[in-house]
Amino acid sequence: KAGHEWWRTRQENLLVPAQKEVVLSDTRRAEKNQAMDLLTAISRSGSLPIDANELHIVIALTHCFDHDIMSTVIKDNINPIKKIETSLLLLGSMIQNEPEDKLLASEQELREETK
């Protein structure tokens, strides 16, 4: 179940900075009603069936390093791929509600998949 306090970061266009705001329950209700109105309009008040549908959630993740990619690898001796893999593992753990070690395949499983 979702928490009681929701935050939304919205950027009206590319020329203005993003603004972070709390989404109150009344606003959530209004947003939900707008989404339902759109669905009603698309399906012509339910007269058009929606046989196949999917929900896609996009999560954006950025990584910042002090230098460009070559300087990060050579001067700082940091493997940026390892940092990104670690971030993705933590994100996957939160989404799946599983510990990180359960999300990793064992070496034996990887060998069997490549056969």
Question: What would the keywords be for this entry?
Answer:
115 residues; mainly alpha; two-stranded antiparallel sheet; 5 helices; 2 strands; extended
pLDDT below 50 for ≥5 consecutive residues: which ranges? none
Average of the residue pLDDT scores:
84
User: Helical segment tally?
Assistant: 5
**In sequence order, what are the helices and strands, one letter per element?**
EEHHHHH
Q: What's the count of strands?
A: 2
Structural class designation: mainly alpha
- Beta fraction of the residues? 5-15%
Question: Short summary of the structure?
Answer:
Helices cover 46% and strands 9% of the residues. The protein has 115 residues and is mainly alpha-helical. A hairpin with an 8-residue loop joins β1 and β2 (19-23).
